[in-house]
Amino acid sequence: DSGVTQTPKHLITATGQRVTLRCSPRSGDLSVYWYQQSLDQGLQFLIQYYNGEERAKGNILERFSAQQFPDLHSELNLSSLELGDSALYFCASSVSPAGGANTGELFFGEGSRLTVL
Amino acid sequence: DQQVKQNSPSLSVQEGRISILNCDYTNSMFDYFLWYKKYPAEGPTFLISISSIKDKNEDGRFTVFLNKSAKHLSLHIVPSQPGDSAVYFCAASAENQGGKLIFGQGTELSVKP
User: Fold this and answer.
1) Do you find a cis peptide bond into B79, omega within 30 degrees of 0?
2) CB-based contact B92:B33 (threshold 8 Å)
3) H or E element at residue A114
4) What is the DSSP letter of B18?
5) Can you tell me the distance from the alpha carbon of A83 to that of A77, in angstroms, rounded to the nearest whole number?
């Protein structure tokens, strides 16, 4: 158990709909990251928050948005869903927001599997 | 632009032998490298890391080698065990790019008894 909790574990929805994925980081971790893993793809970095502020942005679509709340949990909002958005969405957390050797390890949740029909 | 590449999608090894997983990167600003292991229906878990100031880091059966001039790193597992069967992701980080990790596509390792 990594200590990172993601809900829901599975979600099936239709094209055009909007969903919200939720993540609670490990106790004490201030930094939250969102990754997308599509079929046969690696983990694509979407966005990072640190203590409520956006820290880094990756290839996140404009239809997607995220935020980190004062209690440090984070939500990833996916709207106008398309078939290609079907993927595993992982949340990870870490103590430090810094990169390089200061990054340490990221602790990953079990993921939320989104299926768009 | 795939900054971290794992060119072998799969690898099959006999139990007790050495498993060698390879990873190449293009961004010379990367200064920290990690390997993650992922079982089905679970999130990735950290395995081992190496800073760019080193060329080798060892932890039990796992050793990571870094060749900065070739922008290449490898993970050696000796001896391989059936429980090592999983998808292995190589990841890299740069100090000037926030805390995000850039991952490769993964290599599925199968260790046969």
Assistant:
1) yes
2) yes
3) strand A112-116
4) -
5) 16
Contact: B98, A48; criterion CB under 8 Å: yes
Alpha-carbon gap, residue A76 to B68, rounded angstroms:
36
Q: Which residues pair with B22 in a beta bridge?
A: B74
Longest dimension (CA), chain A: 42
Amino acid present at B14: Q
CB contact under 8 A, B89 and A42: yes
For chain B, how many residues are written? 113
Q: What angle do CA A38, A44, A48 make, to 5 degrees?
A: 130
Other CB atoms closer than 10 Å to residue B92's CB: what's the count?
28
Pairing of strands A112-116, A10-13: parallel
Closest listed residue to residue B31, CA positions, set B66, B7, B75, B74: B66
Q: Please report the number of interchain residue pairs, chain A to chain B, with beta-carbon separation below 8 angstroms.
A: 89
Q: What is the pLDDT along chain A (117 residues), one digit of tens a residue?
A: 889 999 999 999 999 999 999 999 999 899 999 999 987 678 999 999 999 999 889 989 999 999 999 999 999 999 999 999 999 999 999 887 766 555 567 899 999 999 999
Q: Which two tokens stand for residue B100?
A: 């995000």
B82: which 2 tokens?
């059936």
Cβ within 8 Å, pair A58-B100:
yes
Q: In terms of Cα–Cα distance, which of B93, B96, B61 is closest to B76?
A: B61
Q: Are strands A74-78 and A19-24 parallel, antiparallel or unpaired?
A: antiparallel
